Amino acid sequence: MEICLRAYQNVGTNSLKTLIKFITCQSELGHDILERKIFMKQQKEIILDQIPVGPMANFQYFIGDQQTKKVALVDPGWDIDEMLTIADKKNYIIVAVVCTHAHYDHIKELEYLLGLRDVPVSISKYESGVSCKNLKKCEDGDKIKIGNIELTCIHTPGHSAGDMCFLCGDILLTGDTLFIDGCGRCDLAGGNPKKMYDSLFNKIAKLPDATIIYPGHDYGPTPSATLASQKQTNPYLQSESLEDFLHYRMGI
Ligand SMILES: [Zn+2]
């Protein structure tokens, strides 16, 4: 594995300074893999690997803790064989699957994965049409334990009925709810632009400004960004009212 780039960035918070180590690698599998390992102050170390996959610019993730190497695989839409190869090389133990929502590009290879790893699958109870073995339906406020860390479920409907963001420390996995400088479309089945407005402004925007957004697609100028920066540059977070948001998102 050839390391092409290393960069370091300090993200300041009032109570916590997070050092983000960026390593872009050219994998032996022929994929550019952007790995992000978040080293939390207070000696708590979280695994977060952000892996670009598939033809729709999806991001899939491993999130877990370095002590036990236990991780969850987030959104098994594409390239599961390659995801498992990466996990094996890093000695990760996949103990769970979590899905931000049930659109096919986020769950297409779920059944295949479950044939290879017999682990629980967390998907929002509000997401329709989902059935698989080991299904654990989750709702707002639920905690999902992965080794020594916990993911907190935040229900953020709008793109689909059951969109779920997952919060771990400063890390927020936003699926198709919030992209970097964008947000998910609201005109698909289960979508609702008024609920999207509520999810963006009354849930995500109320998290600490130092929260780092890790989206489900690589649609922005950077693969992740702080909530503070998104409040400055994301046009959907500039809306001054629900009407303003509906006009911009839906053209009404
Ligand atoms: Zn989607």
Which SSEs are present, and which pair or pack?
Blueprint: E1 2-11, E2 18-26, E3 32-40, E4 45-53, E5 58-65, E6 70-74, H1 80-89, E7 93-98, H2 104-107, H3 110-116, E8 121-124, E9 135-138, E10 143-146, E11 149-155, E12 164-168, E13 171-175, E14 178-179, E15 182-183, H4 193-203, E16 212-215, E17 225-226, H5 227-233, H6 242-250
Parallel strand pairs: 6-7, 7-8, 8-9, 13-16
Antiparallel strand pairs: 1-2, 2-3, 3-4, 4-5, 5-6, 10-11, 11-12, 12-13, 14-15, 16-17
Write a compact overview of the structure shown.
This protein has a single domain (2-250), classed as Metallo-beta-lactamase, Chain A.
Name of the level-1 CATH class: Alpha Beta
Total domain units: 1
Order of helices and strands: EEEEEEHEHHEEEEEEEEHEEHH
Would you give the CATH topology?
A: Metallo-beta-lactamase, Chain A
Reading side by side through the largest sheet, how are the strands ordered? Answer: 1-2-3-4-5-6-7-8-9
Describe this structure in words.
This protein is α+β, with helices and mostly antiparallel strands and 252 residues long. It has one domain (2-250): Ribonuclease Z/Hydroxyacylglutathione hydrolase-like (Metallo-beta-lactamase, Chain A), CATH 3.60.15.10. The chain contains 6 helices and 17 strands. The strands form 3 sheets. Strands 1-2-3-4-5-6-7-8-9 form a 9-stranded mixed beta sheet, covered by helices on one side. A 6-stranded mixed beta sheet has the order 10-11-12-13-16-17. The chain is globular. Residues 1-32 and 35-43 have low confidence and may be disordered. Residues 101, 103, 159, 176 line the site of zinc ion.
